[in-house]
């Protein structure tokens, strides 16, 4: 975030840094976002609670949350939101703010996000089974055992696969990601 955030409330910083973020003010607190989230069980606060904390300018509490780090960018919450709030984009904004302010758990959340990005770069999409397995084996191996029943149920319903699927247009996506990295590197200079 640029230095222009000085003097602004935390809420305003988040809204200003998120394309379409001004619609956060229309949040109904309905809970559809949290109920839609495949990572919701691992989050210490639902997106709905996080948005209420943002509105209350509870910066430290928000940035201490693990919620945005566990967002797998499936956009299910965004698609289902009755107010069309760009929830996934808000999660990315919170990640950026947390990293810029050094407010993250260096032992867990950044590796989770890095693993996610690695799968997207390699396959063109997230690979949930690999992502969760890699994360839990590295940071909470016993928690993985507790998820086995849920994993089996998801596989039975065709919602979880054991092997990643590569998108057909991976070269085009790779070109887009490379350009985004190049532009981002220029902006940091």
Element layout with pairings:
Blueprint: H1 10-16, H2 32-36, H3 47-55, H4 59-64, H5 76-80, H6 87-100, H7 109-123, H8 128-139, H9 141-146, H10 148-156, H11 170-188
Can you summarize this structure?
Helix 7 runs antiparallel to helix 8 (128-139). 57% of the residues lie in helices and 0% in strands. The chain is mainly alpha-helical and 189 residues long.
Describe this structure in words.
The protein is mostly helical. The chain has two domains: 3-100, Fumarate Reductase Iron-sulfur Protein, Chain B, domain 2, CATH 1.10.1060.10; 109-188, no CATH class. The protein is built from eleven helices and no strands. α7 runs antiparallel to α8 (128-139). The longest helix is centred in the last third of the chain and has 19 residues, at 170-188. The radius of gyration is 17 Å and the shape is globular. The relative contact order is 0.10.
Give the termini distance in whole angstroms: 13 Å
Total DSSP E strands:
0
What is the average per-residue confidence, as pLDDT, rounded to a whole number? Answer: 87
Name of the top-level CATH class of the largest domain? Mainly Alpha
CATH architecture of the largest domain: Orthogonal Bundle
CATH topology of the largest domain: Fumarate Reductase Iron-sulfur Protein, Chain B, domain 2
Q: What is the assigned CATH homologous superfamily of the largest domain?
A: Alpha-helical ferredoxin
Number of helices: 11
Note the overall shape: globular
Strand residue content: under 5%
Q: What is the N-to-C order of secondary-structure elements (H for helix, E for strand)?
A: HHHHHHHHHHH
- Major beta sheet, specifics? none
- Secondary structure class reads mainly alpha
Q: Compute the CA-based radius of gyration.
A: 17 Å
The figure for the number of domains is: 2
Helicity level: 55-70%
């Amino acid at each position: 975030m640029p230095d222009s955030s000085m003097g602004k409330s935390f809420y305003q910083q988040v809204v200003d840094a998120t394309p379409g973020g001004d619609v956060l003010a229309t949040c109904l607190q309905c809970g559809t976002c949290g109920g839609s989230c495949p990572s919701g069980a691992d989050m210490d606060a639902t997106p709905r609670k996080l948005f209420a904390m943002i509105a209350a300018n509870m910066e430290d509490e928000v940035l201490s949350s693990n919620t945005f780090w566990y967002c797998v960018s499936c956009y299910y919450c965004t698609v289902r939101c009755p107010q069309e709030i760009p929830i996934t984009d808000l999660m990315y904004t919170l990640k950026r703010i947390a990293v810029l302010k050094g407010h993250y758990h260096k032992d867990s959340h950044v590796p989770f996000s890095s693993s996610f990005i690695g799968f997207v770069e390699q396959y063109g999409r997230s690979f949930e089974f690999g992502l969760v397995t890699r994360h839990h084996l590295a940071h909470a191996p016993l928690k993985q055992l507790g998820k086995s029943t849920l994993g089996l149920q998801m596989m039975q319903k065709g919602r979880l696969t054991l092997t990643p699927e590569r998108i057909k247009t991976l070269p085009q996506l790779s070109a887009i990601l490379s350009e985004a990295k190049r532009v981002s590197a220029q902006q940091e200079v």
